[in-house]
Model the fold of this input.
Amino acid sequence: MYTNILKLSRALNHVDERPDFPIPQIVFYQTGVGSEPNLYSEYVQGATGYSLVVKVQEAYAFIAQNFHPGDEIYLFGFSRGAYTARMIAMIIGAIGVLNRTDMDNFADIFVSYQKLGKLKDGAEKTALQKKLDPWLSHDAPGKKRADSDQDTFSIKCVGVFDTVGSLGLPEELTHHAPSTKSLFGFSDTFLGEHIERAYQALALNETRADFNCAKFDQTTGGRKKGQVLKQCWFTGSHSDIGGGWHDHDLSDLTLTWMVANIEDMLSVDMTYIKSLPDPVALWGEQQPHDPRTGIFILSDKISRTLPTKTDDVTHETIHPSVLRQAHMLPQLQKNIDEDPALVCQLLPFEQEMREHWPYVPGKYDAKQSRGSAQVISVTSAKKDFLWSSTKEVVSVGAQLGQELFREVRQTTTTTSGGDNAQASHGSSWFAQIAHESHVGAIIKEFSGSQTTPKH
Done:
């Protein structure tokens, strides 16, 4: 009933005691876009992206406040939280990590950077570029502080679960709201060369057009630099990948995969991770949840673009657990038959978890999984009424949200990251919007140790 981001934040030890000297691990957990307790604010934020801007600023401010040169930065997120994590990574790639006093300029830099991405060539863009040059140049103070250059990495790892760059509501309901891309003025498709490792778990069975995934594309420069990129497809809809259901076999697989890839970098409480599975089926055999329930029956339907072969741009693979499904997508089976190398190998920790998968036959009825979302049958007339009523509510929210967004462009807002995300979204279709957008940031404080770390 918790997302993988919350579980991961709780699993990280306060100190990594494996090296010769203890290394503190500072964890920042941020609730998702639209997860504030006011229901109306969820409509406003979900429909406009207003909160997304604040979340990016808030998380970057945490990093700037706690970062010391030599520290390692890790960013994790799910859904719009994954998008937030990738935006933060992009900003660090652009300006590095500002110190506490330079943070007085961050709001202006942030807004100007947004605007720069949306401007076409012209005098205004040239003037704005000149204004930003002191912060974007090779020898900018933030870049020097983050030790960011062509030969180094300023971010150790970005790990995400099924990045969603849209606002997460059916497009028909948000036609008055600005898109996420227009809010930030740039796309996050390309993986920045300042990121050493990037991992993404992707949902095979997500069919909502408004929840289409944003993959990473690795650049030639990133490959030459030794950057690691892994994007792995798993059985499940969007929420099965990032977690939040009471029956969470599928999200346990994605969390295990992520932990297996980062355990050499971060100190993780493996006992806690091993205690999380409470399976309703054999390893890999839980059926995915239907994403098209409640308000999401209004969403346009799509089929995600699956890998047809291995390549050195997206580095996509299929997780071995997918082969355990009774009914595999025909196109996927065809792709695997033509290129068996698409199926990746289990890492040692994943193999251990599979061998000790604690499934108890008969404990749960797989056909009546715990906390399954209510499937709403809607007649054509009722669907039209639901559509028009919801459009009216969200359109009002969008208008107010745009006013709020104009305000946030003038200032930086900082609030505390909360821990109020524990409710399962199995009981409420709209709660998915609030639940699927968490982000976490970790700073590993090498500089706080008694001995200079090895690089």
